[in-house]
Write a sequence for this structure.
């Protein structure tokens, strides 16, 4: 299924390559190292177990991007990226001197498809323009791997295997800004910052950390974010 999606997407890009000669379409390569963040909301503060986010980690995103112009300074922006995020959650139980703690860190590898509007300024210097991106991105999780040994003290918490701890994907907000520098008629370099903020929870019913047999949705909500320094080239 995933293979068919990727092939179909590449065929769509190929079908529009003819427009590149007229400056209506640009295809490019993008690489974006970034800082992966986890946001954890404790859903029940009265159950003696407290859940919070763990430290962020360095991850990356890479793939192809395309600008479909429908005006001089306006374009529909999409692409097909391989993006790695990180989910880190901490749990703590403290009641009448009975203390327990647990941590879980999982790498989530995604196929990510951005769908956004890209706005350009007029030239701020010779052959250089600012660009701004606003839209969304869909993430399809293709692999979930424990990235750090699971720690559990006190025996109050249970562990879920990484593949079963998270859902099939999520949807997020995509914001970005940067500079595009034209090298020739059909070639340009670009660089900037992007922020992808997850809008939907990513934990499965089991979740990465279990407590008293409850569903994860009764205990906590996990959403992810990724701040990237993007760079690449358009052809």
């Amino acid at each position: 299924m995933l293979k068919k999606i990727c092939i179909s997407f590449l065929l769509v890009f190929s079908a529009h390559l003819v427009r590149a000669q007229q400056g209506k379409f640009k295809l490019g390569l993008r690489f974006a190292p970034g800082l992966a963040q986890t946001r954890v909301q404790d859903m029940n503060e009265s159950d003696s177990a407290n859940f919070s986010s763990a430290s962020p980690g360095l991850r990356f995103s890479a793939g192809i991007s395309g600008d479909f112009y429908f005006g001089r300074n306006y374009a529909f922006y999409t692409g097909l990226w391989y993006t790695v995020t990180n989910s880190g959650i901490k749990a703590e139980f403290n009641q009448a001197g009975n203390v327990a703690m647990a941590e879980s860190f999982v790498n989530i590898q995604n196929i990510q498809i951005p769908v956004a509007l890209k706005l350009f300024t007029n030239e701020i210097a010779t052959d250089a323009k600012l660009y701004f991106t606003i839209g969304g991105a869909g993430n399809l999780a293709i692999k979930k791997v424990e990235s750090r040994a699971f720690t559990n003290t006190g025996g109050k918490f249970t562990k879920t295997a990484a593949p079963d701890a998270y859902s099939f994907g999520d949807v997020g907000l995509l914001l970005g800004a940067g500079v595009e520098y034209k090298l020739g008629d059909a070639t340009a370099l670009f660089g900037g910052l992007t922020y992808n903020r997850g809008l939907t929870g990513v934990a499965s019913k089991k979740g990465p950390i279990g407590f008293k047999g409850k569903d994860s949705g009764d205990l906590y909500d996990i959403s992810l974010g990724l701040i990237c320094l993007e760079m690449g080239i358009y052809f």
In short: DSSP finds three helices and eleven strands in the chain. The radius of gyration is 21 Å. The first helix runs from residue 2 to 15.
